[in-house]
Amino acid sequence: MKLNTSIRLSLGAATAALFLGGCVIVDADEHVRADWSSDRSYGELMGADVTNGIVTARVTSNGCTTKDFIGADIDKTGENRFSVGFYRERQDYCEAYIPEGVELSWSFEELGIPQGAAVRIRNDISN
User: Fold this and answer.
1) Residue 77 φ/ψ region, left for φ over 0, alpha for ψ in the -120 to 50 degree band, beta for the rest
2) Which residues, at least 6 apart from 124, have a Cβ–Cβ distance to it below 8 Å?
3) DSSP states of 53-68
4) Which of 53, 73, 79, 102 has its CA 20 to 30 A from that of 67?
5) What dihedral do alpha carbons 111, 116, 117, 119 form, nearest 10°?
6) Do 88 and 40 touch, CB atoms closer than 8 A?
7) Where is the secretion signal located (predicted)?
8) pLDDT, tens digit, 9 for 90 and up, residues 24-64
């Protein structure tokens, strides 16, 4: 038995409606945006370390963040003691999924801190 064209189209439309009616759209863009406030506030770091004359900060990234994206305020807080606050100078508008962020390092010399100084990071650290 042959179905006429209008019945076949109706059956096709009804079948499509059944399948598409239960369609779920998932937003795959669930990663943390690397978007610290642009008012030079010290964004929350994912981690930080000061060892052997190197200051390392783990920051959120969408795939493009480099040291050029991050600024640092350095203050002398006492004799041979310094504090460093990191802030985002440029936003990272890339679309990579990097849940662990990126680790960026600066030497004491790059930051203008003398070797052997005690350094404290002013940013909050997330766990």
Assistant:
1) alpha
2) 42, 44, 45
3) TEEEEEE--SS---GG
4) 79
5) 70
6) no
7) 1-28
8) 333 333 334 444 444 557 889 999 999 999 999 999 999 99
Q: Enter the tokens of residue 37.
A: 């406030």
**Contacts with 78 (C-beta within 8 Å, 6 or more apart), sequence order:** none
DSSP secondary structure code for residue 96 in this structure: -
Pairing verdict, β 118-121 and 81-88: parallel
Helix, coil or strand: residue 106: strand
Does the model's pTM come out above 0.85?
no
Take residue 43 and report the two structure tokens written for it: 């964004």
- The tokens describing 32, both together, are 């943390």
One-letter amino acid at 92 equals: D
In the numeric block, the tokens 């060892």 are attached to 51
Tokens at residue 4, please? 């006429």
Residue entry with tokens 């600024």 = 71
CA dist 32 and 36 (Å) reads: 11
